Amino acid sequence: FYVPLEANVHYLRTFITGKYSSSKDSIFLFAYGNILNNHETMRALRDRFQSKMRESKGIEIQIAAMA
Fold first, then answer.
1. In Å, how far are 10, 26, 53, 56 from 50, measured between CA atoms?
2. What is the SS3 assignment for 3?
3. Choice between 43 and 25, residue whose per-residue pLDDT is larger
4. pTM
5. Nearest to residue 4, comparing CAs of 47, 65, 59?
6. Which class for 61: exposed (0-12), middle (13-18), buried (19 or more C-beta within 10 A)?
């Protein structure tokens, strides 16, 4: 599913790692399905992705659940 830009990564409540793909102008977030209680880590991820989002207004976050 797709998360709107306004969505706060902090509240996804999943353990997420990400890679920025400049060729596709999108941020791919790979959710591993584990509940993340480390809010400090979530803040760091949120800040990282928000800085990338500011570079492109049309950017979308694509969540891909890893089975």
1. 11, 12, 5, 10
2. strand
3. 43
4. 0.28
5. 59
6. buried
